[in-house]
Amino acid sequence: MPPLNWCAISTPGIEVDSQNSLAASIVPNRTVYLSADVYLSSTLYLLIGVNERLDGLVVDGGGQYKVDGQDSVRCLFLYGSGMQVGLKDLTVTNCSISSGSTHGNYGGAIYVGGGAVLEMDGCTVSNSKTASYGQGAGIYVDEATLILVNTVIEFNVMHYGKGAGVYLTSSSVLTMAGGSLKNNFARSAGCYTAATMEGGGLYVSNGALATITDGASIENNIAYRGGGIYVASYGELVLQNASLIGNSYTKVFSGSTYTSWYRSGCSAGYDYRSYGGGIYADSNAKVTLVGSIVKSNAAYYYGGGVYFSSGTSASIHESKFSSNYARYRGIQ
Length: 332
Prior knowledge:
This protein is an all-beta fold. The chain has one helix at residues 19-26, and strands at 9-10, 31-33, 38-40, 44-47, 58-60, 66-68, 76-79, 84-88, 91-93, 110-113, 117-121, 124-126, 139-142, 145-149, 152-154, 157-159, 166-168, 173-177, 180-182, 185-187, 202-204, 209-213, 217-219, 229-231, 236-240, 243-245, 250-254, 257-260, 279-281, 286-290, 293-295, 298-299, 306-308, 313-317, 320-322, 325-326.
């Protein structure tokens, strides 16, 4: 894996002429305050064993600056047990990966792996993508921890992939307080099976845990199964005082008309059975909803609001379901 390449940064307002000078400048308080937008020509790598002196680094965008991948590179690759990094009031945008990227088509904007911890406070991750059959167009969390505080993950797109907003692998942990996962798309141009497009906002793998609280919203995400969230077997999801609104398998959701985004060009007789507009929970998954709202989600087949497979462990308390749609069963 290549080291952190600060020389690849192009910005008129920050002195980053060498890795050493930047590292020396942040040692006293471990915070970099951006004074201009940063445009990347290669990925920023933070790796244990290579640049531990940047462990504990916080990049503060001041609520007005961005890190921009120029639609050509993944923006941040964070890896290694014990590595902890924070992003504050920063936008990470226009990132992109292909099969030739480090660790392949995983993590269009940000890859967090190997036991690393990334905390994002008041940030936005947007307009990023993976090549076909990738995962985590916004953020890919690989046996690591992601903490989101009042952060927005939006308009990230995957082609025939899973977890367009955030993808959690086994043993990964997501804690999300406030903020939103919205308008993320796991999409297809033609006829592909449901298994290739799951979890528009969030995908929770076997053994992963996602806890979403404090008014956070999962809204207007699109995937064939689990428009808002897909919870795989033995994955766990907790929604507490959160909302799940307007997630679907459809591009158009208006009145009683539900038009599938994935049916264009399909041959007659193709099985359009999408499940779980808001949440799809696979067998042996665990889902807990407390004081939450599930509203205006849609599935073509079963489970407009929530679909629980056989063997799912579900616990629902003081939550409200309304205006969800399914063509056959499980309207709410």
